[in-house]
Amino acid sequence: MRLVLTEFVTLDGVSQGPGSPTEDASDGFTRGGWLVPYIDELFVRRTAEWLERADGLLLGRRTYDAFARDWPQITDPDDPYTERMNSLPKYVVSSTLTAGTWHPTTVLRSLDDVEELKRQAGGELQIHGSARLGNALLKEGVVDLVRLVVAPTVLGSGRRLFEHPVDAAGLRLTAQEATPSGLLLLEYETVGAAPVAEYEGVTAYL
User: Cα dihedral angle (162, 165, 167, 168), rounded to 10 degrees?
Assistant: First the structure.
């Protein structure tokens, strides 16, 4: 399967609490709900299309607990994500969880287990939220695609997607789209180590 890191972020890289002011108030965060004002029809359509490509969801323990609490409670038959989220196989990386409550769930004990899972046939294995897990897998070089929704807002505080230690990673832009509300939908393939070079003047690039 192809491992895809899917994240919602602000212009200053914050990924904490996009969906509501109470979604994630850890560390005293009070600026949640920043994505909601920009949700529009194109965003919903594209993100639902992305979810259709998934053959499994890969989650960290904290994100798994929040999703397992909330998604089974959504009963709106017209919600474009609920049936898919609840029916897909879930894989949670945890050293302490013994069994999942959001079925079907498989507990993985290590990043080696993730690599073994990735070798199975299928479409996309999608990471949603779970920034620490995503960073760890990016550092290990097993993330194939980074898919970002960037909101046109700057928060100045909150947990940032790439704030955790990670080796410099190179990315290549493969898709880009802007929604009417101003969201940027970006896809990047990973290309190994981040390239560096020394600037030699404009004429060197002409």
Answer: 40
